[in-house]
């Protein structure tokens, strides 16, 4: 009998505890403008095993002396998402909290979670109450920065844990619009002025050839893979057959262009040279250019493809 | 007691005699013979015309009582002691002579009868000649008359009336995987002049297992002719002896039969590393229509590890000491002395299956289906042979699963399990080229070939080209692997041409033996060159079916004559040649070339015409 | 008599020259075809006549059905064994062109009593069609310049690795015939455009239909031709020839293409095809305007035109937007969309992103595939700009677009290759003609080159040329174009005086340039042979390894395992594997598969990914639900075959995560330090995953006591892995393919884990000591 009573009280006590901790958290969130700034015990409070709410926590190290660059890059995104969340009506808002934990405020938490790197975002699903996930998995899930540090993907990802989707909207990037508008106008006026130049075939020829050279130089590869301009170790040729650095695009495109140009010269320009001596000189010149540049190109290729058996002059 | 025992034996003896007795009851008692006696009393002559129907019914009766002879179809002159009528059948195989008007007490008669029952007629006459009994002379005369009548009225062959006795039968069973060699040697003594035909009997079960039969005289390798006749549950082989035997001459006849699927794995599953044990079951006694003085069965396995064998029961009558003895790899049943002519109740009483359970160290292989296509091309001077083989490991099924790790370990320690087949070695004909070995999903690169050179004309085909082929995966118990194997051979290696008659003779081997494997069914197709005529072929042994039709391939206009034969249960003994003769006219030779040339010419002609026709509506619009 | 750099025979009648030339052409074309076919047979010579890689196995299987059962059976063939238990309506989900082609060839040969195995037809189809491609390219380039350029182009396309890579003997894929169709359709289009003939337009449409039936890449044509037409209109080169050619092509081609079930109504309902439709409409408008212009006075016309254009423009655009908005017109499909927004695929369609041939192209592979052509071809494009005829515009647009696409996706290198060959052929033949031409210019006379001015005037006068004049010009040009060098030569040799100021002085210059070019061409040939024989001729079904003595040793594990499945498992045993091997299993093992290379159902693939990447307990229900009998994994750890499943594992995880984000997280498969490891400090999730266990099960035992090393990852392989829900059923000779049988539920109703533990408890007593095993495998 007594035991039953005691247990009853215990339950009530627990419920009350939940209640006021929830209230506390709500205040904290309001204070932090949507994002709770945690220290170790408030962290324990937020992630208590009997929590009826869910939370998404950013572990970061923003202080100068840590100089964690990605942390600084990512922090604004997180806080904007948190801010966006604080705009939903209270009933939903108070079931999910955004919090950030700085290393210097609670290093022990980092140790407890054995976090070696920052920033990290954990999403804690509710461990109790109605919003406890059906699968019963209450362990936090980690957000992998696959799509970079942008706020959009983050909001999209975290919306899976919030009662209602996070009403995050990407802020309209006025600067971009402005520049594009300017560019359009500029181009338009330029065309008006330079129409005779623009509409000659050779302008177009030049343009298209440039495009072709850039593309065949592997520009799209660098774009899609986002490879650096030069390697960390400073050399500008990436090892490996199907890999390259940004600078290679320029070099290769230039080499191609030079070779193509010499062919064009030999074919189109040289025959119009009326003095035999000059013409002969040019023929030999361009012939030499072709041979030398070509062998440079081949040797460049042999750097990329070790097994390649052929070599020219060098 | 003693006498009773004697009677028992006599019983056994006599029963054998009552080949076609019409009166079963008489067989039941030696002493009293009511029915016969009554008939004798009632109507002396009426039995003259006893309907053959009656006889048949009597036979039925006799058979039910196990007293009928097991060899109905075997014609023999038999001595009658019971008084009974002569029966006239359309196609007489036996002759009955009765002692109807023959006054003598059956007690006296029995004395003599017991002496001669079951013995061939001449032997009986001989006995009577030198008998002390008074009745003997009369019986002798009667017998002589009976023989005389039999020969004269019924045209029974005197030599067939003659008969044999097996002085010894030695059966040797060489246990194998799916193939078991059984060699039975009959030491035969003729009991009668000009004995010509000796009969060997096989039980139905043995006959079904048997896939190949060969009869020889001991020490000679010339096969004897025989004619087989099957009964409900027996098969008889009437072997024609090379020369007639006169009485008391002896002869050793070797009867070889090869049994397939005679063994079964026991236990039926084995682990990857485990042993492989097989069971072989056969009958204890060798059946024979003749009485046998001594017979012995020797079962020999390849490995000395024989796990168990059956001890025969209730054969003390025939053997003094142990009914079966085991020494090393051999289990010997017998010797059994004085084994009488086989009768159904002898079988009922003594015949029994004996089983030998033994280890076998080679995988038990079985070719479930073999399709062989042999295509002769005179243009390419080439004979192409292609076998589609479905191989099956009929040993104990793999227990659990295959572990590559274990397999590699076994391979490394040189102790691979007996039922695992890692590779095969085949002997292909010499002088072959372009050997190919592939399966449904492409070429199999794991094979080695050593080609033997083609022997000079006329020389015996001495050595083989050795092909070692590995299946894609090791073949474990119960696994299958189907593949295709083919090769080209020069035309002259198998085809000979006769200038005068213009006849080609082609020799096609029925199969390429896979060591230790039995071929369950084979379809052999022989494709002759296009336009071949007068096709004849000779097979070493008959197939299930033989069909002639035409096969159309490679730019044929009329198609090529082809012969398709079906076989089953082939063993290495069957790897013999089929001979095909045919003619090919010169016109037939160049027919194909002509056809192709014509077609091409027409094509070019059409092209030329098409080029010169101008289809455009307004010529001036045409560019250049 | 002009001065000649070297003597030429003078007593040749033009007829003789013409005939010899045409004879040479035929012989050369024959030789080129020979070379094209021969250079694709390396794979057969080095290996065997076998179907390559993955997709070809499906095509081969489909073709076998077609050959065996006839076309109608094939047409409504429902394959229950694929995508078990869903099944797949094959007839409606394939481009049947390829199968139909080889089926027809097969039937013809049968009719001729030539019993050629369907497999050999399939294997040799690609080389055969490459010869046709060479011919088509010849015709195309002939339209561009002249025969000699055409021959050069044919030779290039015949042996250039960029095309061989997809058309070696055995790679029986749609591209095998598609490139021929592509080039031939383009040739017909150009013909139709030049002559303004509806006949050629129709033939072009027919081949376009064939192309649609053969390859998904037909969309390239569907957009290429309209763009060409559009540019012509914008340059004011509208003509009735264009109108006739385009309308006949578009109307018939579109109607025909809708007959292919797999395409259906896309040509009128998806954005990829809208361009063609729009240009079709535009052409009608422009034609109408032309009509009006010829009736109305000019200043009214200007006003009318402006109003009209604005109105129609607004109308069309708004209609398009509206239709797209309410879904009448499907937006770009993922594959095409990922061509423009290159980040799209990785984010939203990981399956597409995971395919290796959808990766972007680095410059070395450009050079590998095209070698010298890659830098000669801009020169060729410039020459096209020089005399800017309508067809040259086509080449220019083609080269710009194709080089962009080739940069985005490796496989689209294939579409770039033909135009590269054409353009560089134009450049090189121009060069050679210039330097072989024996006529020396008479020094220091300033005469403007006639062709040049001609080109200029057309370009300048283009906007206001009446159609009549243009009708003449190309005809004239075409008449002039063929054998220009030859005709010149003939003219010279027959002593006529051709006044030309452009030309080369002296013999040495000629020799230098010609030799230089020849030398480059030879180098090109060597390069092509080398690349073809080494890089592009291995059927990934069979692997070859070099022995220490340089002898080639064949590694045939795939077929070993597949054939074992085929021969020793029940007909209806369901095999689960990663989708790469689906087609091969269906083709070689002939068993039902869960997923295969036709990746139409993302969820199903994700299910497999989930089963592979989750722990045994979680995977087992999935396996049982899909009544999987066998699970097949590829493991290269023993012989260092790097393309194995552990290396593909992250994609499985990623794809599974896309569907079950809260059960599978990619991050759990990395070590805390973010590395992807398989040895003992691999993450727990990794070590428990089914794929991991199946790959390394009993692998360490093979090394006995020694260090078990995974030769692909160069890491230490894990020891004593226990499998409770699966049994190892088969492992191929080099451990590349490992097949596991899924256990049925325990008879006693225990869960398999405890049942297994019980078994083990019994076994452990009997199992042989480890020491012997060590001795066994010391080697």
Task: Describe the model.
The complex is a heterotrimer of chains A (314), B (624) and C (779). Chain A is an alpha/beta fold. Chain A has eleven helices and five strands; from the N terminus they run αβαβααβαββαααααα. Chain A has two domains: 2-158, 3-Layer(aba) Sandwich (Glutaredoxin), CATH 3.40.30; 217-304, no CATH class. Chain A has a five-stranded mixed β-sheet with strand order 1-3-2-4-5. In chain A, α10 runs antiparallel to α11 (276-304). The mean pLDDT of chain A is 81. Chain B has 624 residues and is α+β, with helices and mostly antiparallel strands. Helices cover 22% and strands 37% of the residues of chain B. Chain B has twelve helices and 31 strands. In chain B, strands 21-20-24-17-16-27-30-29 form an eight-stranded mixed β-sheet, with no helix packed on it. A seven-stranded mixed β-sheet of chain B has the order 4-7-2-1-11-14-13. The longest helix of chain B is centred in the last third of the chain and has 27 residues, at 586-612. Chain B is flat and about 130 Å long. Residues 445-487, 490-499 and 765-779 of chain C have low confidence and may be disordered. In chain C, 61% of the residues lie in helices and 4% in strands. Chain C folds into three domains: 18-171 and 333-437 and 504-544, no CATH class; 173-300, no CATH class; 574-759, Rossmann fold. In chain C, α1 (14-38) runs antiparallel to α26, α10 packs antiparallel against α11 (198-214) and α22 (390-408) crosses α23 (413-436). In chain C, a hairpin with a 5-residue loop joins β9 and β10. Chain C has a four-stranded mixed β-sheet, with helices on both faces. A two-stranded antiparallel ribbon of chain C has the order 1-2. Chains in contact: A-C, B-C. Chain B: Component of the oligosaccharyltransferase (OST) complex. Chain B: GO terms for molecular function: structural constituent of ribosome. Chain B: Pathway: Protein modification; protein glycosylation. Chain B: It comes from Candolleomyces aberdarensis. Chain B: Belongs to the OST1 family.
What keyword list fits this structure?
heterotrimer, A: alpha/beta, Glutaredoxin, 2 domains, 5-stranded mixed beta sheet, 5 strands, elongated, B: alpha+beta, Immunoglobulin-like, 8-stranded mixed beta sheet, about 35% strand, flat, disordered N terminus
Topology readout:
The complex is a heterotrimer of chains A (314), B (624) and C (779).
Chain A: H1 2-31, E1 35-38, H2 40-46, E2 54-60, H3 69-85, H4 90-93, E3 96-102, H5 107-112, E4 120-124, E5 141-142, H6 151-158, H7 174-198, H8 201-216, H9 219-225, H10 246-269, H11 276-304
Helix pairs in contact in A: 3-6, 8-10, 10-11
Chain B: H1 2-17, H2 24-28, H3 34-42, H4 52-64, H5 106-116, H6 121-129, H7 135-154, H8 158-161, E1 164-174, E2 179-190, E3 195-203, H9 204-209, E4 210-217, E5 226-230, E6 234-245, E7 250-260, E8 263-265, E9 269-270, E10 277-283, E11 292-300, E12 306-309, E13 324-327, E14 330-339, H10 344-349, E15 353-359, E16 365-377, E17 382-393, E18 397-398, H11 404-412, E19 424-428, E20 433-439, E21 442-443, E22 447-450, E23 465-469, E24 480-490, E25 495-498, E26 503-509, E27 517-527, E28 532-538, E29 545-551, E30 560-570, E31 577-584, H12 586-612
Parallel strand pairs in B: 1-11, 9-18, 16-27
Antiparallel strand pairs in B: 1-2, 2-7, 3-6, 4-7, 5-6, 8-10, 10-15, 11-14, 12-15, 13-14, 16-17, 17-24, 19-23, 20-21, 20-24, 22-23, 25-26, 26-31, 27-30, 28-31, 29-30
Helix pairs in contact in B: 6-7
Chain C: H1 14-38, H2 42-46, H3 55-69, H4 71-75, E1 78-79, E2 88-89, H5 90-93, H6 97-111, H7 118-144, H8 147-159, H9 161-164, H10 174-195, H11 198-214, H12 218-234, H13 240-257, H14 266-269, H15 271-293, H16 298-325, H17 334-340, H18 344-348, H19 350-354, H20 363-370, H21 373-386, H22 390-408, H23 413-436, H24 450-461, H25 467-480, H26 484-493, H27 507-534, E3 543-546, E4 552-555, H28 557-568, E5 575-576, H29 582-589, H30 602-613, H31 616-625, E6 630-634, H32 645-659, H33 684-688, H34 690-696, E7 709-710, E8 715-716, E9 726-731, E10 737-742, H35 752-766, H36 770-776
Parallel strand pairs in C: 5-6
Antiparallel strand pairs in C: 1-2, 3-4, 6-10, 7-8, 9-10
């Amino acid at each position: 009998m007594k035991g039953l009573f005691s247990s009853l009280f215990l339950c009530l006590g627990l419920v009350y505890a939940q209640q006021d901790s929830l209230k506390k958290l709500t205040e904290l969130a309001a204070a932090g403008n949507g994002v709770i700034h945690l220290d170790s015990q408030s962290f324990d409070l937020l992630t208590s095993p009997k929590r009826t709410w869910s939370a998404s926590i950013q572990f970061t190290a923003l202080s100068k002396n840590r100089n964690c660059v990605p942390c600084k890059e990512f922090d604004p995104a997180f806080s904007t998402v948190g801010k966006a969340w604080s705009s939903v009506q209270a009933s939903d808002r108070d079931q999910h909290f955004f919090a950030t934990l700085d290393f210097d405020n609670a290093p022990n938490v980092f140790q407890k979670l054995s976090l070696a790197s920052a920033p990290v975002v954990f999403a804690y699903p509710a461990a109790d109450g109605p919003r406890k996930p059906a699968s019963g998995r209450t362990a936090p899930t980690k957000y992998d920065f696959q799509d970079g540090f942008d706020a959009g993907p983050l909001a999209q990802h975290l919306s899976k844990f919030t009662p209602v989707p996070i009403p995050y909207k990407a802020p309209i990037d006025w600067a971009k619009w402005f520049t594009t508008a300017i560019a359009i106008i500029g181009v338009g006026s330029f065309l008006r002025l330079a129409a005779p130049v623009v509409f000659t075939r050779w302008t177009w020829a030049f343009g298209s050839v440039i495009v072709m050279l850039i593309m065949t130089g592997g520009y799209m590869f660098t774009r899609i893979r986002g490879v650096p301009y030069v390697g960390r170790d400073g050399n500008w040729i990436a090892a490996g057959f199907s890999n390259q650095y940004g600078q290679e695009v320029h070099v290769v495109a230039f080499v191609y262009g030079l070779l193509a140009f010499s062919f064009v010269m030999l074919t189109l320009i040289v025959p119009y040279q009326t003095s035999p001596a000059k013409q002969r000189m040019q023929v030999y010149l361009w012939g030499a250019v072709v041979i030398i540049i070509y062998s440079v190109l081949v040797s460049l290729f042999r750097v990329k493809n070790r097994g390649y058996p052929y070599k020219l002059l060098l | 007691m003693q006498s009773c025992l004697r009677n028992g034996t006599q019983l056994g003896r006599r029963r054998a005699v009552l080949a076609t007795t019409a009166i079963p009851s008489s067989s039941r008692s030696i002493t009293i013979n009511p029915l016969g006696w009554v008939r004798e009393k009632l109507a002396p002559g009426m039995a003259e015309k006893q309907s053959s129907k009656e006889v048949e019914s009597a036979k039925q009766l006799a058979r039910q009582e196990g007293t009928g002879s097991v060899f109905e179809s075997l014609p023999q002159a038999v001595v009658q002691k019971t008084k009974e009528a002569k029966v006239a059948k359309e196609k007489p195989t036996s002759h009955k002579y009765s002692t109807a008007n023959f006054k003598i007490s059956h007690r006296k008669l029995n004395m003599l009868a017991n002496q001669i029952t079951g013995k061939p007629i001449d032997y009986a006459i001989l006995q009577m000649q030198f008998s002390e009994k008074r009745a003997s002379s009369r019986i002798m005369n009667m017998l002589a008359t009976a023989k005389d009548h039999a020969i004269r009225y019924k045209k029974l062959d005197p030599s067939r009336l003659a008969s044999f006795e097996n002085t010894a039968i030695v059966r040797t069973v060489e246990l194998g995987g799916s193939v078991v060699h059984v060699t039975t040697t009959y030491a035969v003594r003729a009991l009668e002049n000009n004995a010509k035909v000796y009969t060997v009997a096989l039980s139905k079960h043995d006959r079904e297992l048997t896939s190949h039969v060969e009869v020889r005289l001991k020490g000679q390798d010339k096969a004897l002719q025989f004619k087989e006749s099957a009964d409900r549950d027996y098969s008889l082989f009437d072997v024609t002896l090379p020369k007639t035997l006169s009485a008391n001459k002896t002869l050793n006849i070797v009867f070889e039969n090869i049994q397939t699927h005679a063994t079964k794995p026991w236990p039926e599953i084995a682990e990857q590393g485990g042993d492989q044990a097989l069971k072989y079951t056969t009958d204890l006694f060798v059946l024979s229509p003749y009485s046998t003085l001594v017979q012995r069965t020797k079962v020999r396995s390849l490995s000395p590890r024989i796990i168990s064998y059956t001890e025969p029961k209730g054969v003390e009558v025939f053997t003094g000491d142990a009914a079966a003895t085991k020494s090393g790899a051999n289990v010997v049943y017998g010797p059994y002395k004085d084994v009488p002519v086989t009768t159904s109740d002898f079988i009922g009483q003594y015949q029994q299956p004996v089983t030998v359970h033994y280890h076998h160290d080679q995988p038990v292989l079985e070719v479930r289906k073999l399709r062989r296509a042999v295509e002769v091309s005179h243009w390419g001077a080439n004979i192409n042979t292609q076998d589609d083989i479905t191989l099956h490991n009929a040993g104990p099924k793999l227990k659990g699963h295959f572990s590559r790790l274990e397999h590699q370990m076994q391979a490394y320690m040189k102790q691979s399990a007996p039922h695992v087949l890692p590779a095969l070695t085949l002997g292909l004909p010499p002088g072959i080229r372009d050997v190919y070995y592939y399966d449904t999903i492409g070429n199999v690169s794991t094979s080695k070939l050593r080609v033997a050179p083609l022997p000079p004309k006329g020389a015996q085909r001495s050595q083989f080209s050795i092909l070692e082929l590995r299946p894609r995966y090791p073949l474990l118990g119960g696994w299958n692997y189907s593949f295709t194997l083919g090769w080209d051979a020069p035309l002259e290696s198998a085809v000979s041409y006769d200038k005068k008659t213009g006849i080609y003779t082609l020799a096609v081997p029925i199969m390429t033996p896979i060591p230790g494997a039995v071929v369950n069914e084979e379809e052999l197709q022989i494709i002759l060159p296009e336009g071949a005529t007068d096709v004849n072929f000779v097979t070493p042994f008959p197939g299930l079916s033989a069909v002639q039709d035409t096969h159309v391939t490679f730019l044929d206009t009329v198609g090529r004559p082809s012969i398709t034969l079906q076989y089953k249960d082939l063993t290495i003994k069957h790897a013999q040649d089929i001979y095909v003769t045919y003619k090919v006219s010169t016109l037939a030779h160049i027919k194909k070339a002509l056809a192709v040339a014509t077609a091409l010419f027409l094509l070019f002609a059409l092209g030329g015409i098409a080029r010169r026709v101008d289809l455009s509506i307004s010529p001036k619009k045409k560019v250049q | 008599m002009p001065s000649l750099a070297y003597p030429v025979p003078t007593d040749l009648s033009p007829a003789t020259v013409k005939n010899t030339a045409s004879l040479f052409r035929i012989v050369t074309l024959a030789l080129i075809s020979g070379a094209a076919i021969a250079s694709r047979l390396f794979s057969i010579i080095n290996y065997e006549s076998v179907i390559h890689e993955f997709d070809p196995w499906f095509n081969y299987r489909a073709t076998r059905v077609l050959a065996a059962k006839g076309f109608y059976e094939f047409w409504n063939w429902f394959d229950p064994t694929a995508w078990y238990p869903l099944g797949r309506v094959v007839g409606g989900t394939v481009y049947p062109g390829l199968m139909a082609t080889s089926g027809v060839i097969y039937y013809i040969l049968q009719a001729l009593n030539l019993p050629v195995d369907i497999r050999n037809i399939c294997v040799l189809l690609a080389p055969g069609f490459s010869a046709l491609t060479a011919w088509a390219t010849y015709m195309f380039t002939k339209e561009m310049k002249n025969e000699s350029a055409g021959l050069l182009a044919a030779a290039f396309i015949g042996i250039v690795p960029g095309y061989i890579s997809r058309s070696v003997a055995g790679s029986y894929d749609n591209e095998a015939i598609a490139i021929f169709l592509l080039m031939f359709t383009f040739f017909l289009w150009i013909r139709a455009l030049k002559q303004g003939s509806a006949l050629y337009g129709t033939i072009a449409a027919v081949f376009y239909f064939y192309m649609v039936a053969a390859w998904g890449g037909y969309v390239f044509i569907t957009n290429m031709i309209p763009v060409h037409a559009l540019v012509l209109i914008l340059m004011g080169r509208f003509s009735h020839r264009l109108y006739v050619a385009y309308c006949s092509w578009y109307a018939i081609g579109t109607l025909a293409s809708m007959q292919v079930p797999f395409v259906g109504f896309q040509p009128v309902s998806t954005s990829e095809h809208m361009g063609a439709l729009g240009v079709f409409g535009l052409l009608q408008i422009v034609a109408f305007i032309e009509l009006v212009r010829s009736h109305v006075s000019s200043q009214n016309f200007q006003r009318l035109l402006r109003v009209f254009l604005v109105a129609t423009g607004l109308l069309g655009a708004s209609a398009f937007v509206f239709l797209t908005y309410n879904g009448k017109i499907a937006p770009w499909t993922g594959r095409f969309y990922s061509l423009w927004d290159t980040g799209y695929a990785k984010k939203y369609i990981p399956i597409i992103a995971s395919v290796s041939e959808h990766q972007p192209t680095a410059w070395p592979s450009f050079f590998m595939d095209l070698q010298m052509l890659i830098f000669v071809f801009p020169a060729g494009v410039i020459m096209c700009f020089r005399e800017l005829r309508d067809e040259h515009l086509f080449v220019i647009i083609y080269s710009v677009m194709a080089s962009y696409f080739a940069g985005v996706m490796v496989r689209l290198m294939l579409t770039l290759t033909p135009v590269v060959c054409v353009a560089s052929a134009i450049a090189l033949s121009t060069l050679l003609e210039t330097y072989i031409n024996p006529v020396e210019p008479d020094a220091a006379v300033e005469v403007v080159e006639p062709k040049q001015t001609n080109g200029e005037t057309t370009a300048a006068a283009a906007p206001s040329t009446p159609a009549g004049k243009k009708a003449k010009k190309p005809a004239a040009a075409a008449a002039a174009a063929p054998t220009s060098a030859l005709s010149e030569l003939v003219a010279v040799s027959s002593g006529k005086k051709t006044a030309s100021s452009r030309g080369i002085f002296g013999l040495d210059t000629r020799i230098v340039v010609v030799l230089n070019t020849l030398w480059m061409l030879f180098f090109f040939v060597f390069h092509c042979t080398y690349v073809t024989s080494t890089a592009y001729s291995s059927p990934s079904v069979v692997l070859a390894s070099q022995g220490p003595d340089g002898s080639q040793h064949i590694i045939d594990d795939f077929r070993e395992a597949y054939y074992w499945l085929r021969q020793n498992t029940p007909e209806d045993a369901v095999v689960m594997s990663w989708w790469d091997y689906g087609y091969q299993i269906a083709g070689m093992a002939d068993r039902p598969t869960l997923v295969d290379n036709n990746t139409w159902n993302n969820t199903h693939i994700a299910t497999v990914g989930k089963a592979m990447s989750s722990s045994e307990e979680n995977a087992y229900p999935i396996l049982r639900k899909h009544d999987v009998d066998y699970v097949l994994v590829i493991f290269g750890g023993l012989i260092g075959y790097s393309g194995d499943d552990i290396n593909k594992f992250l994609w499985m995880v990623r794809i599974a995560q896309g569907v079950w984000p809260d059960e599978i997280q990619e991050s759990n498969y990395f070590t805390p330090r973010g590395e992807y490891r398989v040895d003992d400090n691999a993450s727990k999730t990794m070590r428990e995953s089914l794929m991991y266990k199946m790959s390394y099960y009993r692998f360490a035992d093979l090394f006995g006591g020694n260090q078990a090393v995974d030769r692909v990852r160069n890491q230490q392989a894990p020891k004593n892995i226990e499998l409770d829900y699966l049994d190892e059923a088969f492992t191929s000779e080099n451990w590349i393919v490992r097949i596991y049988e899924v256990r049925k539920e325990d008879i006693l109703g225990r869960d398999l884990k405890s049942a297994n533990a019980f078994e083990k408890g019994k076994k452990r007593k009997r199992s042989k000591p480890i020491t012997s095993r060590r001795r066994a495998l010391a080697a």
